[in-house]
């Protein structure tokens, strides 16, 4: 279905009031394939979106926004240990997680309550509480924008990194994700290594997929605003990756500064901590602000423009750089 001059207010969790020239929603892969060969698709800029939970619109969009309504979840294959589940790109991520927990399939439970839809999960390799989508993705099915052909990428073809994949670089604007196949465990192995996670789960009694999911939901609700209550795009910035020696040097000056090993020579600093140290937590500038419970999250108190959010973000980046000589980069994509 093709709409013209469509409001995106309910298609971006930041709640920015903009429109798109065209909005195309498809219920089958074939519908998408034939649309991509149409004049409108060939002549305009195309932007596939999921739940719009990682986007910041700076102005009206003069092209076509594509939104998947592919909602199937089907078992592709299974063996003694694993089940391979093919999930349509339009499935709401958290309803997929709920489905896995209900069926006793292990792997995605730590990713409970992440906003957005399945199609975006490989693009930015969503992650939380010690687990990333790349740990569970078996393959990704995409449609070529150029000729509508269907291509399958194995996990290793996706070149996953922290909030990163080949779809953000070499293959940007070339393919549209239509389904993702996940490899899940029939006998779950729980991953409770993230900070306080194990003790929080144990407070609920026996460890199970259900108690892990409940715990994660409770932690997220205590730190992150619900998009339907307060506009935001989750973490606005990524955690910066720096040389280990640089971090150790910085830690001499700031002994409480947390960081997490990434490789032999690099570490991930905490943007939340850096921003907090610069005194931003809970600050509000007119319609925008820094969330009081998690300074990595920028919020729209109502009526904010994308440009207002960007200028707050720039001020934050500048003050973090002045104090720590560390550059923090947005995780959110500006449109
Ligand atoms: N911290 C502060 N002040 C605060 C809050 C946190 O200093 O007010 C410091 C603390 O040292 C804390 C550390 O920041 O230990 C980490 O905080 P948290 O556990 O909330 O995780 P994060 O690194 O800030 C990342 C992801 C989140 C994900 C959590 C949990 C990114 C950009 N963000 O945040 O993902 O839920 O870990 O795994 O990697 C998202 O991407 O939208 C998102 C919410």
Descriptive notes:
- The chain is of the alpha+beta class and 335 residues long.
- The protein is built from eight helices and 20 strands.
- It has helices spanning 29-36, 39-43, 93-103, 197-202, 209-223, 244-253, 271-277, 306-324; strands spanning 2-7, 19-26, 46-49, 55-56, 61-68, 73-78, 82-88, 127-128, 131-132, 137-144, 150-154, 175-185, 231-235, 241-243, 259-261, 266-269, 284-285, 288-290, 297-300, 333-334.
- Strands 6-7-12-10-11 form a five-stranded antiparallel β-sheet. Strands 1-2-5-3 form a four-stranded mixed β-sheet.
- The chain is globular and about 60 Å long.
- The two termini are 23 Å apart.
- The mean pLDDT is 96.
- Uridine-diphosphate-2(N-acetylglucosaminyl) butyric acid (EPU) binds at residues 128-129, 223-224, 234-235, 238-239, 258, 270, 272-273, 276, 281, 294-296, 331.
- Uridine-diphosphate-2(N-acetylglucosaminyl) butyric acid binds next to strand 13 and helix 7.
Order of helices and strands: EEHHEEEEEHEEEEEHHEEHEEHEEEHE
Q: Are there runs of 5+ residues with pLDDT below 50, and where? A: none
Class by alpha and beta content: alpha+beta
Bound heterogens, unique: uridine-diphosphate-2(N-acetylglucosaminyl) butyric acid
Given the structure, what is the number of helices? 8
* Beta-strand segment tally: 20
Largest sheet: 5 strands, antiparallel
Quote the average pLDDT.
96
Strand content: 25-35%
Query: Helix content range of the residues, please?
Result: 10-25%
Oligomer: single chain
Give the termini distance in whole angstroms: 23 Å
Overall spatial form: globular
Main β-sheet, spatial strand arrangement: 6-7-12-10-11
Radius of gyration (Å): 20 Å
